[in-house]
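Reopening this ticket.

The earlier resolution said the output was attached, but the attachment link was broken on my side. Pasting everything inline this time so it's all in one place.
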Amino acid sequence: MKRQDDSFFNKISRIITPRNLALFLLALYIIALIPLLVIGHYNFPSADDYSEALEAHRAWVSNHSLFGTLWVALVRAIGDYFHWMGYFTCNILMAFSPTVFGGRVYIITSYLMIGMLSLSTAYFLNALFVRAFKMDRWISLSITMLTLLTTVECLPSTVEAFYWYLGAVNYTFIHGICLFYFGMMIRCAFDEKKRMGRIIGASILGFFAGGGNQMSALNAAIIVVGALVLLKIFKKKDELDKIRIPSIAYLVGFVLNICSPGNLVRAEGASGMNPVKAVLVSLYECLDRCIDSWTTWPVLLMIVLIVPLFYKGLENADFKFPCPFIVAIGGFCLTAAMVTPPLFALGNMEAGRIRSLTFMMYILLLCLVTGYVTGWVRTKLKASSGSADDDKDGLFTPAASILIAGVLAFGLFCAVLTYMPEPYFCSTAAAFTDLRNGSAKAYSDALSERAALYESGQKDITVEPLPTEPLVLYFSDITYEEEDWQRQSICRFYDLSSLTKSGGDK
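Inline output:
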């Protein structure tokens, strides 16, 4: 039905505009982040945070020199590269962590990780949609916000993705570096001129992205090599020339990563799968977890919402979107490839940080594949009818506007309805629940008391068990075992003679 023939539909389309929708979703995302950032103020180091930051922390306490502390952290990272693990970028980030500076600096962890995921996703998708496919920037922002909302709210392990620094910096932060790298690569390729400053920046980012965790590093390597091969096959010499140096820089970092002497040392104690089995099991894990376990109603609503957005947003794209089935299979395989390194090295992907990173990639690829298939459908409809959209004034069609408004209202209703029986169903609800019931504060108060004891000058310390274990914040705690490595790490960090936990065998 034409808009001018019905004033009600006309009003709906004038309210649900690309700009208004984008601003609404942006506001919704910011509101959803508030509990996640507030609860971060109750966050404390745990587990490996103490052992990895030990040398740099001692350097900071002794001289309070930022550059001297950074140098000690770099020395520690180099030692890890040769004797423990190859992902040198992560080694540096782990050795120079907020724990180094003691006090309450650790509360910046959630800001760093949530900020990195949000900004890198927005940067990458803006480059891809606006630069490459000439999409309206408001529609691009709406798709970005829907992708981020789904990713953040449905994470398998919020604590390991955002709050435990050692896990989050290895996976969430490196994922962000990779997205910034690919966003800059796209901008390099679509620049009218070859800008050396941008190429140098992309090359630096690429080198450090290649030195990140091997899940992200392998995936990015597949994408880089695939892009180079496709540009060569389709004789896109200009684009190939613009991304050649950043691609080489990435691959150099990746090779240094996987060829590290430390990887061989660490592999001696690992019980992973052989390469062929790891690939096959990763395909099953992707099928089982992504499609069976992780495709919940919020994910399905995201798909329904982004289809009309892509349909409208791709109206100016001069791309034919060939072979959608092959692209969809490629997206599935690329998600599965994310799982292969931990299966090869460890034989499982049970760690929350590993599952969360895989979920981040799954949602991102699901969004991109949905957009690609939508673009293919639009192209086919336009070829058969001569026009794929009868609305050329920059607004959504009345049908699209009503669909978007209806699905958004339904999604908000479902979120409120789900919170009642399942207050920990999504990340924001979990953070709000732990803030409201006092669990986060009790946890923080207990760890503050412990920190005061550690820094009191006493050498033999006894601490009380934690009164609560808030789902969003709690990762690990010292045990009653005398040889507990976490107790030993804290003793070394604070120069204690002994640390015991009351209520158990000492």
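Reporter confirms the inline version is readable. Residues 352-385 form the longest helix (34 residues). The first strand starts at residue 460 and ends at 463.
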